[in-house]
Amino acid sequence: MAKSSQHISKIEVQANELSNAKISNLFQRISERIEQSRNEIVRNANAVLLITNYEIGRYIVEDEQQGESRAEYGKQVLKELSKLLTKQYGRGWSERNLTYYCQFYRVYSNSLNAFSKSDLNIANVFAKFKNTKLSWSHYLILMRIVEVLQDKLNEWVEEIQENTIIEGKLN
User: Fold this and answer.
1) Per-residue pLDDT tens digits for 36-84
2) For residue 56, which of 2, 60, 74, 101 is within the disulfide window of CB 3.0 to 4.6 Å?
3) Rounded Cα gap, residues 125 and 117, in angstroms
4) HSE value, Cβ hemisphere, 13 Å, CA-based, for 58
5) CB–CB of 112/125 below 8 Å?
6) Burial of 101 (0-12, 13-18, 19+ CB in 10 A)
């Protein structure tokens, strides 16, 4: 009987080893799928956030352009929207954030105006945003850089115009 129980033991060990290898392989495949899914969720969430911020900015800018386009009107709209959105959705809807969304729309509307054309274009832009490595924080930094460059460009244009006027008066 000792031989048959040793034989059963060896079969159990072999079965366990086979089972462990299968489980290990299955675990590896499942782990890879979970990691892929998590990465996909992050990419999709980032793309949805970027599109949402862009669209919010577009709605506000278009409202300002159709109505009174004075700065005071815009400030009041942002203040009221901030209160309403914060009450409805919680934190994250400050006047400053709404201003960033408007700036995001203004800065990127030339290259991304496909959003407002049709749902098909939104799908294409979503795919573009989904594959980007840039997050909302990156776009905020880029917008600040664009703003600084725009200010510098305006200064240079002003200087050139002043120098042209002075040269014209000297000639």
Assistant:
1) 999 888 888 888 888 899 889 989 988 877 755 566 677 888 999 999 9
2) 101
3) 11
4) 15
5) yes
6) buried
pTM of the model: 0.64
* Per-residue three-class SS string for the chain: CHHHHHHHHHHHHHHHHHHHHHHHHHHHHHHHHHHHHHHHHHHHHHHHHHHHHHHHHHHHHHHHHHCCCCHHHHHHHHHHHHHHHHHHHCCCCCHHHHHHHHHHHHHHHHHHHHHHCCHHHHHHHHHHHHCCCCCHHHHHHHHHHHHHHHHHHHHHHHHHHHHHHHHHHHC
pLDDT tens-digit map of 88-103: 999 999 999 999 999 8
Return the structure tokens found at 115: 């959003």
* Residue whose entry in the numeric block shows the structure tokens 């590896």: 28
